[in-house]
């Protein structure tokens, strides 16, 4: 489990796409939690995890395009 966490953290540090989406989704989650009272912690966590998934998808698409063009 620790190896998985270390790999995810290193991936987020080395991938600017992943970091950008993670920060944006975290800021959006906090903003929604402040603005909308029913938007609680679990919804915020789900939003951030969705952002992580989008960041992984974005990065994988970029790597696929890079491989095809090379």
UniProtKB/TrEMBL annotation:
Superkingdom assignment: Bacteria
Keywords attached to this entry: Membrane, Transmembrane, Transmembrane helix
Membrane spanning stretches: 20-37, 43-60
Name under which the protein is recorded: Uncharacterized protein
Organism from which the protein derives: Massilia mucilaginosa
């Amino acid at each position: 489990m620790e190896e998985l966490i270390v790999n995810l953290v290193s991936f987020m540090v080395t991938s600017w796409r992943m970091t950008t989406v993670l920060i944006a989704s975290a800021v959006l989650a906090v903003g929604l939690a402040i603005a909308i009272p029913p938007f609680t912690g679990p919804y915020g966590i789900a939003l951030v995890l969705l952002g992580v998934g989008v960041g992984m998808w974005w990065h994988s698409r970029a790597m696929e395009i890079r491989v095809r063009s090379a």
